[in-house]
Specification:
This protein has about 1000 residues and is α/β, with parallel strands linked by helices. The protein is built from 35 helices and 35 strands. Helix 3 packs across helix 7, helix 13 packs parallel to helix 15 and helix 23 runs antiparallel to helix 25. The longest helix is centred in the middle third of the chain and has 26 residues. It starts with a strand and ends in a 13-residue tail after the last strand.
């Protein structure tokens, strides 16, 4: 169903103005077309990108890589790698240029120079200067054309506090120099005043998140305090100098907190009367109309107008991908027409409230501008309260036509070096070459009626959610939503009332008392007892084993569908108790809030994924031939013992346990002693979900007693273990010994850790690589099996990388896991802390300390430590440390990087940051790891998306959360029946 946006009273006027504007922009069109074959290379690249989707993708990827390439040979070889890809159909001119045998050859150098220059020319079309001097020259030219400006400083990734401070200082310097230059500018009435009121000649546009490197909606209060301090400095200085400041809008995750911070700040006595400040609304967001209404109400209350800049939005691809990956609702309209229609609705809303707000309508679509003019003229909106905006290099002809009609036009001028400017350039190129782009459609001479038609919105029900995977995982909590943050805070209050309770083993459906108890402590604050846990004796463990044996015959006969439904119910209960489960994880094992929430999602995913998997496997395989039925089926193995770790106390315990249960095995869960309370909470859920008594039992106890007894018991069929290599190898050896009365070989599934490396090559995006390495190495204090403990960096970028890595790590917040600002919490206990400290001392003897951060005293804290100039064979490069300690290793080339990465006994996870296609391809085949992550962090595997597990001494068995995992808990059987009787057999298809 298609809904026509109702033709309003403004439509006739919109069409009339739009046609006039379009006519002004389309002059000299035929002349342009005739010259197409003689165009400069930068224009050719754009034209080719528009006509060839495959070339467009590869060309933009190459452009993204270009700033990292430092020689013509590198440029030439990357050109060949990207554009020589089979998926790319090359225009003849480009094919000829790329036909060189060697990047160092003269033709290679010529190709590099030609394309390098073309891209630089393209960049200068959209970037108003590389330094302040060039920018001043640009804005002076714009002013001669009667256009106002706003300046934006490029370089979007602020990942260190030093960079956040530098961002502020560079803006203060920029304002100072622009104001200084403006003293020599002649006043231009069209842009410097309106309705008798002066308008600041100098305006800058800033990004709120760039004022604090750890800006995070989860830590709304902390982010607000840090950002507001720097914004106040900027606003005060701008006022002293007479400059205006406009706040840009960024990714959706930051929208609500950005609006909240600005609303609060601009009501402060000092800033309340300021009218030289602006806020931005993005029309592609589904909630932007409501946000605009809220802003107008707030402005009425404030009593002094501000500018609202209305734009369509620049992060569409990023927003849709993120929402699809996170299983969150799409925040943006999937249909461009819906955005255009919403843009017109908000334009009308702003202009109809012109007494409270200055409207700045930013677009390159002639219809959007015409619409705004039609409404403004109809309502007699005063000139001061309305202006039109375009991006530098994007709407030059439209801007000129608007100026000629007597409207105030402001040009948004980004400036900065080419390197940080490349992300901005690619967004502009995407916008220019998209099929739905007005600029592109106008260039292609589409009929005027089509170009200027009112936007037609498709029925929203048909919009694609963007998820193609068959398994839909649980969505993590979105802490950008205030309601979710409030719920988390309430859960903390509620759980604090429950601390110190006693948790007993579950044997045959009954909780049984024990003679021995241990206290489970909060590692952030070891004076706080999270719970008391009853430890089982060996006699009680014997009873549990007997109960499992007795329950097995009934459980194995329970239909797979019934077992799967119990599992799905367990997943649903976890979803209902998500906030509480997250709190238990935070308090018992010291995992920061966001990571604890993601762990709950993983546990839910295991329940739902394995439920689907057992139903698939239960169908078996049919190998029939005429006269004979052949069935391949699976049956449960028997009794499974699960020995789970403390570092993923819910997800891994749940995954191994429910895999065994849903496969029809009776299962005993022995958790790590330091995380037995969370295992007790999992137990409550599995009991509530309906697992029968004896089928699942919770058996907390000492590993050396209860664990050893269960591993060695003759009735144990499967042992699923996650933990250290030392214990894993002992279990493997013990399980191999046939015990008296044992009639089967035990199956061992063991995940035993890693010495995980990330390679960073010279073509890597360093912003991305530094952030990814910091998250991978120091997330949960380096206590994930998948954490990075080595980073292998190629020589040309080694020093730059280490410098930025140190600064980014210095900017992390270390503190109690429950604080929303915390990125690095405690390690699990005193033993872990002391062991890690020993490794740090060994590291000091073998390498240079690049960074050692102090840590709080009241918990088991260790500040992140970075060692540089580490030998690949050093102890800290070879042994698993399981803490926030990172070794940075220097290598000459990519071949050596791979050799160093593969030079340990482990093969669990690994990462590569590179924009060189041949390196990516080589890593895929030669990097010896179970999970390889390219251009992203190496932790956080998702069920059904990145099945997790390694080889070599990282483990034995198939990958958790993957299609083979349940097979380890099942025995396959083949059943053949001869169905001939006296030479007669039913034949399919016969009458």
């Amino acid at each position: 169903m298609v809904l026509q946006v109702k033709t309003s009273t403004y439509e006739a006027k919109t069409q009339e103005i739009a046609k006039q504007l379009l006519a002004a922009t389309q002059e000299n069109r035929s002349f342009f077309s005739s010259l197409r074959d003689q165009m400069r290379w930068d224009d050719k690249l754009l034209a080719w990108a528009m006509s060839n989707p495959g070339l467009r993708v590869q060309l933009f990827r190459f452009i993204d890589t270009l700033p990292a390439l430092h020689s013509k040979s590198e440029i030439a070889s990357h050109l060949q790698e990207y554009l020589g890809d089979e998926s790319v159909e090359l225009p003849t001119a480009l094919k000829g240029m790329l036909n060189f045998a060697n990047p160092d050859s003269m033709p290679g150098q010529v190709a590099a120079t030609t394309v390098g220059t073309a891209v630089e020319t393209l960049a200068h079309k959209y970037i108003s200067g590389e330094n302040i001097k060039q920018v001043i020259k640009t804005v002076e030219r714009l002013r001669k054309e009667k256009m106002a400006f706003t300046i934006d400083l490029l370089g979007e990734a602020v990942i260190t506090e030093a960079e956040a401070q530098s961002y502020l200082e560079r803006y203060l310097e920029l304002i100072q120099q622009l104001v200084e230059a403006s003293k020599n500018w002649t006043a231009i009435p069209a842009i410097d005043e309106a309705d008798g009121e002066p308008i600041p000649k100098v305006q800058v546009s800033v990004k709120l998140t760039a004022f604090y490197s750890q800006f995070d909606p989860l830590d709304a209060k902390g982010s607000e305090e840090r950002v507001s301090d720097r914004i106040r400095i900027l606003l005060r200085r701008a006022q002293e100098l007479g400059a205006a400041v406009h706040f840009d809008m960024e990714q959706y995750a930051y929208k609500d907190i950005t609006l909240s911070i600005l609303k609060k700040l601009l009501l402060e006595e000092e800033f309340r009367q300021r009218t030289d400040i602006g806020i931005t609304i993005q029309a592609y967001l589904r909630d932007s109309e409501q946000d605009t209404k809220d802003l107008i109400s707030w402005l009425k209350e404030r009593g002094y107008p501000l500018t609202i800049r209305l734009v369509k939005g620049a992060y569409w691809d990023q927003e849709t991908i993120k929402a699809a990956q996170k299983h969150w609702p799409q925040p943006v309209y999937n249909d461009k027409a819906a955005t255009d229609a919403n843009f017109e609705t908000i334009t009308q809303l702003l202009l109809e409230n012109h007494q409270y707000v200055y409207s700045a309508i930013g677009s390159h679509n002639v219809r959007s501008h015409a619409r705004a003019i039609a409404i403004a003229e109809s309502l007699n909106v005063p000139r001061r309260r309305f202006e039109l905006q375009v991006l530098y290099g994007m709407g030059d002809k439209v801007a000129k036509a608007l100026v000629d009609r007597g409207y105030r036009v402001r040009v948004y001028c980004p400036y900065g070096e080419l390197l940080p400017g490349m992300a901005y350039l690619i967004r502009r190129l995407l916008e220019n070459t998209a099929n739905s782009s007005f600029l592109r459609q106008n260039m292609e001479n589409r009929p005027i009626e089509e170009l200027l038609a009112p936007p037609i919105v498709k029925d929203a029900k048909n919009e694609n959610s963007g998820v193609s995977s068959s398994f839909l995982g649980a969505a993590d909590s979105d802490y950008a939503e205030e309601e979710v943050r409030t719920k988390a805070a309430q859960a903390f209050q509620s759980i604090r009332q429950q601390l110190g309770r006693t948790y007993l083993p579950l044997i045959n459906g009954e909780y049984v008392n024990t003679s021995e108890f241990i206290d489970s402590l909060n590692p952030s604050n070891f004076s706080q007892v999270v719970g008391k846990v009853g430890l089982m004796s060996v006699e009680q463990t014997q009873q549990a084993m007997q109960a499992a044996k007795a329950a097995f015959p009934g459980w194995r006969k329970t239909p797979a569908k019934q077992r799967a439904d119990i599992l799905r119910k367990a997943g649903d209960l976890m979803e209902l108790r998500r906030a509480e489960l997250s709190v238990w994880i935070v308090l018992e094992v010291g995992k920061p809030v966001k990571e604890a929430d993601a762990e709950v999602s993983e546990a839910i995913d295991f329940c739902r994924y394995y439920a689907d998997e057992i139903e698939r496997l239960d169908e078996g395989v049919n190998y029939d031939i005429p006269g004979e039925i052949n069935r391949y089926i699976y049956q449960p193995r028997g009794i499974a013992v699960v020995i789970s770790p403390w570092n993923f106390p819910l997800a891994i315990a749940c995954g191994m346990t429910v895999a065994a249960l849903v496969s029809g095995n009776c299962t005993l869960l022995k958790p790590a002693e330091t995380s037995s309370v969370i295992a007790a909470k999992l137990t409550e859920i599995l009991v509530d979900a309906g697992f029968p008594k004896g089928v699942f039992q919770y058996v907390p106890g000492k590993g050396s007693q209860v664990g050893a007894y269960l591993v060695n018991h003759p009735d144990t069929h499967v042992i699923a273990f996650t933990g250290s290599q030392e214990v894993g190898c002992r279990i493997y050896a013990d399980a191999a010994i046939l015990k008296p009365g044992q009639k089967h070989m035990k199956r061992v599934i063991a995940e035993m850790g890693g010495k995980n490396a990330i390679i960073v090559d010279e073509s890597a995006d360093l912003d991305q690589a530094v952030v990814g390495v910091v998250q991978s190495a120091f997330g949960y204090s380096g206590q994930k099996c998948s954490a990075a403990s080595r980073v292998i960096v190629l020589e040309p970028i080694y020093d730059t990388f280490v410098q930025r890595l140190v600064q980014a790590t210095k900017s992390l917040n270390i503190g109690e896991a429950e604080l929303p600002s915390t990125q690095v919490g405690p390690v699990i206990d005193a033993n872990a802390r002391d062991r890690i400290r020993e490794y740090i001392e060994k590291g000091k003897a073998e390498a240079e300390v690049a960074l050692e951060l102090p840590a709080p005293e009241q918990g088991y804290f260790i500040g992140p430590v970075i060692f540089s100039e580490v030998s690949p064979n050093a102890v800290i490069s070879q042994e698993e440390i399981f803490g926030p300690v990172l070794a940075v290793i220097r290598v000459k080339d990519f071949q050596e990087a791979l050799a160093v990465a593969n030079g340990t006994n482990y093969a669990l996870t690994g990462g590569l940051y590179s924009r060189t296609p041949s390196h990516i391809q080589q890593a895929q085949t030669e990097f010896e790891v179970g999970n390889l992550y390219i251009n992203r962090n190496i932790t956080g595997a998702i069920v059904g998306r990145q099945p997790f597990g390694g080889f070599k001494l990282s483990g034995v068995g198939s990958k958790a959360g993957g299609p083979d995992y349940l097979l380890q808990f099942l025995e396959p059987r083949a059943v053949t029946e001869n169905i001939q009787r006296q030479g007669f057999a039913p034949i399919e298809g016969a009458d």
